[in-house]
Amino acid sequence: MSSRERILGRVRRALADVPGDEAPVARDYLREHGQRSAARTVDLLAENLADYRALVHRCAQGELPELIAGLLSAHGSTSVVVPHGLPKEWSRAVDADLVQDRAASTARELDRVDSVVTGCAVAVAETGTIVLDGSPDQGRRRITLVPDHHICVVRVPDQVVASVPLALERLDPARPLTWISGPSATSDIELDRVEGVHGPRTLEVVLVEG
């Protein structure tokens, strides 16, 4: 018997006397804090992303390819990993080697890639969080955790919600969800901040309209 089977067996035994018609959990908490227009919700997202030290850019749909190319050039990126479902027009101006997201890619191979460009599933304004769910325009989780530079495109206002409860309504819990609030960072007991430990050292979020 595996460890997994032993743990699940203990859970089943612990729940054996729990009635199947147990009352549902009350969810009468606030859905969001205050009322905002869609534009103000996007502004709040930008403010909170910046507060977490993400670099925030805003552009129109037609300006996106040139902006992505400029950000990669400014970062000195010569190789960029892209998920297979990333819109082709997003990367058409990129002057770098495009590396496709592959199941066979190892962490060592991805560590040699300079940047990654993805879309997102949803963005949460009140917490400055972007959520990835492994959809075709986001790819496997590993491609957003190993490269040191992540450019994430958020379509506004469609992909922006005010709060975590509203975000959860849009997400499938069976998918591999990655919640990102700013660049990867940690602090030791002396509060010395180190970035890039658990993911990208630099997170750039592009809020694209239209």
TrEMBL record:
Location of the LUD domain: 45-208
Pfam family of the protein (one): LUD_dom
InterPro entries referenced in this protein's UniProt entry, alphabetically: FTHF_cligase-like_sf, LUD_dom, NagB/RpiA_transferase-like
Protein name listed in UniProt: Lactate utilization protein C
Species per Swiss-Prot/TrEMBL record: Streptomyces lienomycini
